[in-house]
Backbone:
C-alpha cells in the first residue's frame, strides 16, 4: 500500500522569478544612469580651454601698412608702364578703329590731289609708293586726314597712310604695336603729322623710306 502524499508550503516559482527580474532591471537602469553621469563629468574635465593670448603672434600695424603700401605702389607702377609703354596714344587708337571700318574699301575718292600731297610733304604730282588701293579724305578723331592704302610687295603687305591736313600741336611720336597692328609716325617733312599702320614693322620702315625718296 503506497504512503499518502504530504502537502508542502513552498511559494509558487513564477512569483520569485518576476521579483528577481525586476531587481536586475532596476540595477541595470541605475548603472546606465551612472555611466551617463560619468561620461558627462569626463567630458567637462577634458574640455580644452582657449589658448592663452600670449601665444598669439602679434603683427605690428606698421608692418601691415608698409606691405599694403608696397602692393599699391607696384600696381600703380604697372599701370603707368602699361599706359606709357604699351597702350597706344588716343590718336593711334582712333586711327586703328577708322582703318578697321574701311579695311575693304577700295577706289580713288580724291580727285584733287594737291592737298593730299601737301599733307604728305611731297611735291604736287609725286609718285606714291606701292600699288595704290584707296585714296580719300577722312576724319580721324575730329581732324581731317587723307587716307591712302597701298600694297608694298617688297616690304611685305598692305600699308595705311594717314596724312593730317594740319599739323597737330601735340602729335605723338615714335612707334609701337597694339592688338597685332604696328604703328609709326613718319618723319617725312617738318611740321607734318603722318601716321603709318601695317601688320609688320618692316613694311612701315620701307614705306617711310619711299615717301622720303618721292
Residues:
Amino acid at each position: 500500500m503506497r504512503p499518502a502524499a504530504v502537502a508542502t508550503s513552498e511559494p509558487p516559482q513564477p512569483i520569485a522569478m518576476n521579483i528577481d527580474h525586476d531587481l536586475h532591471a532596476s540595477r541595470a537602469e541605475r548603472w546606465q544612469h551612472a555611466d551617463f553621469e560619468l561620461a558627462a563629468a569626463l567630458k567637462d574635465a577634458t574640455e580644452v580651454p582657449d589658448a592663452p593670448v600670449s601665444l598669439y603672434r602679434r603683427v605690428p600695424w606698421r608692418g601691415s601698412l608698409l606691405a599694403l603700401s608696397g602692393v599699391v605702389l607696384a600696381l600703380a607702377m604697372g599701370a603707368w608702364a602699361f599706359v606709357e609703354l604699351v597702350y597706344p596714344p588716343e590718336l593711334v587708337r582712333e586711327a586703328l578703329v577708322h582703318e578697321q571700318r574701311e579695311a575693304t574699301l577700295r577706289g580713288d575718292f580724291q580727285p584733287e590731289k594737291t592737298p593730299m600731297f601737301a599733307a604728305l610733304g611731297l611735291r604736287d604730282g609725286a609718285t606714291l609708293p606701292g600699288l595704290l588701293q584707296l585714296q580719300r579724305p577722312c576724319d580721324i578723331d575730329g581732324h581731317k586726314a587723307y587716307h591712302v592704302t597701298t600694297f608694298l610687295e617688297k616690304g611685305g603687305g598692305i600699308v595705311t597712310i594717314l596724312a593730317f591736313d594740319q599739323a597737330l600741336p601735340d602729335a605723338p611720336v615714335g612707334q609701337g604695336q597694339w592688338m597685332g597692328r604696328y604703328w609709326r609716325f613718319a618723319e617725312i617733312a617738318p611740321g607734318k603729322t603722318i601716321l603709318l599702320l601695317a601688320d609688320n614693322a618692316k613694311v612701315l620702315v620701307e614705306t617711310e623710306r619711299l615717301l622720303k625718296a618721292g
In short: The mean pLDDT is 79. The chain has five helices and seven strands. The chain has two domains: 60-86, 90-213.
